[in-house]
Write a structure and sequence with these properties.
Layout: E1 5-20, E2 25-41, E3 45-49, H1 56-63, E4 71-76, E5 79-80, H2 86-92, E6 96-99, H3 113-124, H4 129-142, H5 159-171, E7 177-181, H6 189-206, E8 209-214, H7 217-223, E9 226-231, E10 234-240, H8 241-246, H9 251-258, H10 265-270, H11 301-305, E11 311-312, E12 318-319
Parallel strand pairs: 3-8, 3-9, 6-7, 7-8
Antiparallel strand pairs: 1-2, 1-4, 4-5, 9-10, 10-12, 11-12
Length: 325
């Protein structure tokens, strides 16, 4: 794309062991994320979409080293952070932050809003008390809240306001890269657009880079520059926004987009819905070959035998499908 890649992910895998019996013997593993590769350029928003349980949030947490990846390589601003631990990892935390899905669960109910937002400053800076308070009030103002709310508690706010507090906390250390883990999923529809608009405004002001995780394809269309589609722990397609929505190539992407409601009743009546048969297989026992082969309407014998390669195509699109030429 001609811009510097702030994040590079190569072959990222995250497997969770499964233990059974009195002796806790390992009997298998859950392949939550399996051989995922992509990059994000500075100032860009990459949308990561897919059904619940497909590994989106695990991908985001593994990138931020909240989990230790099973395999793969993660580069942030040209530095390999895959094996970092302890003090070295703590030092780079200032460059990468996360906005969590549930604004109520991620805020300590016993701490005031000011203390919550100041916590990263307590851990990573040597600012004096007055400087911290000024920074907290500045951050509250930046996310559209009254700075005088600093002495209130999380339960005194609505869901949308709590999410703004979470965003203010994520911005406290002036990070370069933020993982937005379904930041609007727990909010009312009327509030979702406000939070997305706030994230876009903050991105322009601070040149932020986002990995925006969501299952809401209509909302991702408004905020993402490129979109990656995930199914059962693997990426199946990645393309610029306009390309993906106007001409999806992977059969799973086509099925997902066919489920997005169309506001125009006339177009909605003519639109063809793709109904996938069966259930999503278990990540503890994925199918052989292509993960999507058990539900794919165009799958052939080769799809059930061989896993498709992650291939680059025209226009910056990547697809993992034997049937796409």
């Amino acid at each position: 794309m001609g811009k510097e890649a702030i994040l590079r992910v190569d072959g990222l895998s995250m497997y969770f062991p499964v233990y059974r019996g009195v002796l806790r013997k390992k009997v298998g593993e859950i392949k939550a994320v399996d051989d995922v590769s992509f990059d994000i350029t500075r100032g860009e928003t990459l949308g990561l979409v897919g059904e619940s349980g497909c590994g989106k949030s695990t991908t985001g947490r593994a990138i931020l080293k909240l989990y230790d990846p099973t395999a793969g390589r993660i580069e942030l601003q040209g530095r390999d952070i895959t094996e970092l631990e302890g003090d070295e990892l703590r030092r780079i935390r200032t460059d990468m932050q996360m906005i969590f899905q549930d604004p109520q669960a991620c805020l300590n109910p016993r701490m005031t809003v000011g203390s919550i937002i100041a916590e990263p400053l307590d851990e990573h800076t040597r600012l004096k008390r007055r400087q911290k308070r000024e920074r907290v009030r500045e951050l509250l103002d930046a996310v559209g809240m009254n700075p005088d709310f600093e002495n209130r508690y999380p339960h005194e706010f609505s869901g949308g306001q709590r999410q703004r507090i979470g965003i203010a906390r994520a911005l406290a250390l002036e990070p370069k890269f933020i993982v937005c883990d379904e930041p609007i999923a727990a909010l009312d529809v009327s509030i979702q657009a406000q939070v997305v608009n706030l994230l876009e405004d903050l991105q322009k002001q601070h040149n932020l880079t986002y990995l925006f995780i969501s299952h809401d394809l209509s909302m991702v269309r408004h905020i993402a520059d490129r979109i990656a589609v995930m199914y059962l722990g693997r990426l199946v397609e990645l393309a610029p926004r306009q390309q993906l929505y106007s001409m999806p190539r992977h059969p799973y992407t086509k099925a997902l987009l066919s489920a997005v409601p169309e506001p125009d009743p006339a177009r909605e009546a003519l639109r063809e819905r793709i109904i996938l048969k069966g259930d999503v297989p278990s990540p503890a026992n994925p199918p052989s070959g292509c993960n999507f082969s058990t539900r794919c309407p165009i799958a052939e014998d080769k799809c059930r035998r061989e896993a498709p390669a992650w291939r680059k195509m025209d226009g910056g699109r990547f697809v993992a499908c034997h049937m796409v030429q």
